[in-house]
């Protein structure tokens, strides 16, 4: 799915089509289906500042790309991909996402985003006590829970320990162990009503009872601190053992290795050089251990985050510590303040849409639709329907009448859409699945009717967005084509490049010159900052001693780490290899680089030569995909009849160049 999102995002950024359809002429046809000048001009102008390939700015070349794009869409329709269930579902999903910009109250949304941002500047440490009561509980049960939580609050205000009260009375399952302690949290981490109460309660105080869908809460705010912002660090990591072992040496090896590295850092050796040589996080080791910057909660290791944020300019390097992944040493690179509101806008919009805050936005939008559309009810039909709903509803035993004929007529209309009485009856039946305790039954029926009308208003408005907003209609057309193109590429190119083993092998053989190893060495590398130590290491290597033996011999037990080792097969030019290493078997001379002395033992030299297909399969598949796509458009031009109106194209070229 991530691949599709990336592909689709790029497609939209490069091919977003405007919606005006004025002053258009036919630029070309594909099997007599016309494509117009206005679309071509808009796409070209939009892409002009985005494309990096100068050839794509050439109008003749761009027309070829545009025709190729439209050919692929035609091919997708010819194959019937638009009828696929997955395609239809994904298109519906994309429409739902896109429609959110039109089906919510922008003013209320803006206010909630600003509120969420302002709250996110702080992190609150709080404890709570929960007395559970259902959202739709009877007034008696609700009052009982409310009185209980009020009584507990009074006891806490009089001096009883809040944690002890939580352990005794809170119906949160974790309260017995944590005494209601929730730790630190910020905006969007708790349900909205709970969050609001927490942020409105002063440090050291206890809130009034707060109602959420879980019941009534008391919140004690223990601390408030500033948001920690973001941080950039580098790290050296030694992975935990891949498999469980009873061998103590295997278990202790990562810890011992990281301790050795830490001692070398304390001895003044370069953190970045040590990361390149020994860190087992391959994504960062070549960069001296540097990681992308992150904020609280973005990493999967709380231990790592806590250490990273605790570092300062005065103490920039941590002691070794263990996470669930392995042993680390972390170095502070830079700290960043909290992002601005503008920087966080997209993230906050997404959070608001998924939060209980969205109910406030929906309610505001519904109120606008009530004013936008006039709904006139057939009161006579409604009265007849209302009499059908009985107290059986409360027990979930009510059903629609067996003969619905008398109610299958207009109850009300929204513009040209007629809503029949039978639809409302079915809606009432469905509502039995939720707990509705409003009495008497006539009042409940009126309440359900208004809920039904509001639902129908929102459905009608959503269904007619294409008619209400031409730009929405245009973007939806783009989504349709984009999804089809992805499915077509997957079918015709990507899957074929993976499953066509004979074609892949032939392509590999024809392009073998592109897939070669450099010279490689199977090598033992020893490094030290001390010349006398490296000389001893060189002597031991000449005697055939193993790296483990040499480390044990030259490193002081419980003291200084004088020698480090690295063993493996490396390509010429790899950062791990000393730069002046001669690619020949045997023990090398001592090589000095910066503060380090190196000596190596090359066990075997593997000369430059072609990689096997398995050794470079990923790159070959990628190259094969590009090859298939380039030839695919040529085949499509043979399959479809393309006719370009050259006179019109010349006119467009003059307009675009002027």
Annotation keywords:
658 residues, Chitinase A, domain 3, five-stranded antiparallel sheet, four-stranded antiparallel sheet, 25 helices
| Relative helix content | 40-55%
CATH topology of the domain at 230-336: Chitinase A, domain 3
Report the biggest beta sheet as strand number plus sense, adding barrel if it closes: 5 strands, antiparallel
Structural class: alpha+beta
Task: State the distance separating the first and last CA atoms.
Answer: 42 Å
Query: Per DSSP, what share of the residues sits in E-state strands of 2 or more residues?
Result: 15-25%
Tell me the total number of β-strands.
Answer: 20
As a whole number of angstroms, the C-alpha radius of gyration is 35 Å
Short description:
By secondary structure, this protein is an alpha+beta fold. Among the domains are: 122-226, Roll (Chitinase A, domain 3); 230-336, Roll (Chitinase A, domain 3); 373-465, no CATH class; 516-610, Chitinase A, domain 3.
Description:
The protein is of the alpha+beta class and 658 residues long. Among the domains are: 122-226, Roll (Chitinase A, domain 3); 230-336, Roll (Chitinase A, domain 3), CATH 3.10.50.40; 373-465, no CATH class; 516-610, Roll (Chitinase A, domain 3), CATH 3.10.50. It has 25 helices and 20 strands. The strands form six sheets. Strands 14, 15, 16, 17 and 18 form a five-stranded antiparallel sheet that branches. A hairpin with a 2-residue loop joins strand 5 and strand 6. The radius of gyration is 35 Å and the shape is flat. The protein starts with a helix and ends with a helix. Mean pLDDT is 88; it is low at 5-22.
């Amino acid at each position: 799915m991530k691949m599709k999102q990336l592909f689709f995002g790029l497609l939209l950024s490069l091919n977003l089509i405007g919606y005006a359809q004025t002053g258009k002429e036919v630029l070309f046809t594909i099997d007599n289906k016309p494509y117009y000048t206005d679309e071509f001009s808009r796409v070209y102008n939009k892409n002009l500042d985005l494309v990096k390939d100068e050839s794509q700015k050439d109008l003749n070349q761009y027309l070829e790309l545009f025709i190729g794009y439209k050919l692929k869409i035609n091919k997708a329709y010819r194959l019937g991909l638009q009828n696929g269930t997955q395609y239809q579902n994904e298109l519906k999903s994309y429409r739902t996402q896109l429609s959110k910009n039109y089906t919510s109250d922008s003013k209320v949304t803006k206010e909630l985003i600003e509120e969420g941002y302002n709250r996110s500047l702080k992190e609150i440490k709080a404890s709570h006590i929960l007395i559970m009561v259902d959202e739709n509980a009877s007034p008696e049960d609700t009052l009982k829970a409310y009185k209980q939580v009020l009584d507990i609050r009074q006891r806490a205000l009089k001096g009883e320990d809040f944690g002890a009260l939580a352990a005794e009375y809170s119906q949160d399952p974790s309260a017995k162990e944590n005494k209601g302690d929730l730790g630190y949290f910020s905006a969007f981490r708790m349900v909205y009503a709970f969050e609001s109460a927490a942020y409105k309660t002063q440090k050291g105080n206890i809130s009034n009872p707060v109602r959420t869908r879980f019941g009534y809460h008391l919140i004690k705010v223990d601390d408030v601190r500033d948001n920690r912002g973001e941080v950039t660090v580098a790290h050296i990591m030694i992975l935990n053992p891949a498999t469980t072992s009873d061998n103590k040496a295997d278990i202790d090896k990562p810890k011992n290795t990281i301790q050795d590295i830490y001692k070398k850092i304390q001895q003044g050796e370069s953190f970045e050089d040590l990361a390149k040589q020994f860190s087992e996080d391959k994504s960062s080791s070549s960069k001296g251990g540097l990681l992308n910057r992150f904020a609280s909660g973005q990493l999967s290791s709380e231990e790592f985050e806590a250490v990273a944020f605790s570092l300062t300019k005065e103490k920039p390097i941590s002691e070794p510590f263990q996470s669930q992944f392995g042993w680390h040493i972390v170095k502070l690179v830079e700290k960043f303040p909290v992002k601005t509101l503008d920087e966080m806008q997209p993230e906050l919009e997404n959070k608001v849409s998924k939060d209980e805050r969205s109910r406030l936005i929906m309610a505001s939008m519904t109120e606008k639709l009530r004013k936008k559309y006039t709904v006139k009810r057939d009161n006579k039909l409604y009265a007849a329907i209302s009499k059908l709903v009985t107290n059986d509803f409360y027990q979930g035993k009510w059903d629609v009448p067996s003969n619905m004929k008398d109610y299958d007529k207009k109850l009300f209309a929204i513009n040209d859409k007629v809503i029949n009485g039978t639809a409302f009856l079915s809606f009432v039946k469905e509502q039995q699945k939720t707990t509705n305790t409003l009495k008497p039954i006539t009042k409940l029926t009126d309440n359900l009717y208004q809920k039904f009308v509001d639902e129908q208003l929102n459905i009608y408005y959503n269904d007619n967005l294409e008619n209400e907003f031409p730009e929405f209609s245009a973007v939806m057309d783009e989504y349709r084509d984009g999804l089809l193109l992805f499915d077509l590429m997957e079918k015709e190119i990507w899957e074929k490049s993976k499953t066509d083993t004979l074609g892949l092998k032939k392509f590999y053989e024809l392009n073998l010159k592109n897939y070669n190893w450099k010279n490689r060495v199977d090598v033992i590398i020893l490094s030290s900052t001390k010349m006398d130590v490296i000389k001893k290491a060189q002597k031991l290597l000449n005697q055939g001693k193993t790296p483990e033996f040499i480390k044990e011999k030259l490193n002081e037990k419980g003291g200084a780490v004088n020698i480090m080792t690295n063993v493996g097969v490396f390509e010429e030019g790899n950062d791990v290899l000393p730069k002046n290493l001669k690619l020949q078997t045997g023990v090398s001379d001592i090589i000095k680089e910066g503060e380090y002395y190196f000596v190596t033992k090359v066990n075997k030299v593997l000369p430059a030569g072609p990689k096997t297909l398995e050794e470079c399969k990923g790159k070959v598949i990628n190259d094969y995909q590009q090859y298939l796509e380039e030839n695919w458009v040529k085949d499509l031009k043979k399959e479809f009849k393309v006719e370009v109106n050259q006179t019109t194209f010349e006119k467009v070229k003059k307009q675009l160049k002027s």
